[in-house]
Amino acid sequence: MKVGYSYLAKQFADPDAILADIKALVISGDFTLGKATVEFEDKFAKLIGCNYAIGVNSGTDALFLSLKALGIGVGDEVITTANTFVATVGAIETSGARTVFVDCNDKYVMDTSQLESAITDKTKAIMPVHYAGQPVNMKEVMAVAKKYDLEVIEDACCAIGASFDNQNCGTIGTTAAFSLHPLKNLNVWGDGGVITTNSKEIKDKLHLLRNHGMVDRDHYAEYAYNSRLDSLQAIVGNHLISDVEWITQQRIKHAQTLDLAFKGLSQVITIPPKAVNEKCVYHMYMLLVENRDALNEYLKSKGISSKIHYPIPLHLQQASQHLGYKLGDFPVAESQAKNIITLPIHQHLTADEIDYMIKTVNEFYL
Ligand SMILES: *Cc1c(COP(=O)(O)O)cnc(C)c1O
């Protein structure tokens, strides 16, 4: 049996309805900032429960343009975690700001108890990452942000549908960034991203920033960027957005099955703790395991595409050299990098595939 990490062939086995809309788009020529994009933005804002959604080129641009819209750049510091996808830090660094890391906790997300000690007089924002679909403790993030008058930009790129204290991720900070990358829970046929905000002022600013600073065809308020969500991708998004609830439920159900099955292996497998006020949407299903590299090889040899997210935390990457961090600075992230493994958790897994994963992991340890 093979258990794939990618589900795209299954998800798009019958693409005809989407292709029909794309054919109509090609004939209409409404390729940029057209009807489909506006429709998608409306649906997205409704789904998340915020006032405005702004479609952009990618999740990375959603983070970068959020920083730009808030006037954050050279001379400023932004606090985030050492264990995230590279794009979180890429967005901060390319904005001109400096990244300040804090460690993560046993749920693989920001240890918010470290925030206060990371703040300096240059700190402008906190960028909590709802990593793998697990919400950060936003109550604590917002309390610190309020106390020190900081902006909060949620990296919700893998967290569509996640919530903390019944508040959806993407509605809590000043802005939030979502990714529509092909392997994210809500995906399109290439790159795409969305910024959410409740502020009209920030929405207006983002409309300028993503479209050359154009007020209209002949008037430019400022020099800016070209980062629009293509109509073509918006069409795909419009078809799939109503599936988000089902996708989320499937992933949660699969995670519960795996959690239960691995409970008996507690000497060798650590399942992250759960809290009732935190809805994790399992963009990734990650465990801390003993003998990780051997397990990873074993699973691969048995046709299961497990992965490591990620073997080297960001503060130890060459790209972070100028930030001056060293081994030992973030012991939790460093230790997790050695023990973490990601198993397929997507919505198209079958009961047989899940059973086979459980059986194979058990075989390795028993
Ligand atoms: C996917 C992801 C991004 C970047 O999104 P892209 O659309 O690929 O640019 C940023 N942060 C996190 C946590 C992500 O998972």
Looking across the biggest beta sheet, what order are the strands in? Answer: 1-9-8-5-4-2-3
What would CATH call the architecture of the largest domain? 3-Layer(aba) Sandwich
Pairing-aware structural class of the strands and helices? alpha/beta
For the report, how would you describe the main beta sheet? 7 strands, mixed
Structure explained in plain terms:
This protein has helices at residues 8-11, 16-28, 35-48, 59-69, 86-94, 115-118, 138-148, 200-209, 231-240, 244-262, 292-301, 331-339, 351-365, and strands spanning 52-56, 77-81, 98-102, 123-126, 151-155, 163-164, 167-168, 175-179, 193-197, 214-216, 219-220, 269-270, 278-279, 285-289, 340-343. It folds into 2 domains: 8-243, Aspartate Aminotransferase, domain 2; 244-365, Aspartate Aminotransferase, domain 1, CATH 3.90.1150.10. The chain has a 7-stranded mixed sheet with strand order 1-9-8-5-4-2-3, with helices on both faces. A 3-stranded antiparallel sheet has the order 7-6-13, with no helix packed on it. Strands 12-14-15 form a 3-stranded antiparallel sheet. The chain is globular, with a radius of gyration of 21 Å. The protein has 366 residues and is α/β, with parallel strands linked by helices. It is built from 13 helices and 15 strands. Pyridoxal-5'-phosphate binds at residues 58-60, 84-85, 87-88, 129, 131, 155, 157-158, 179, 181, 191, 193.
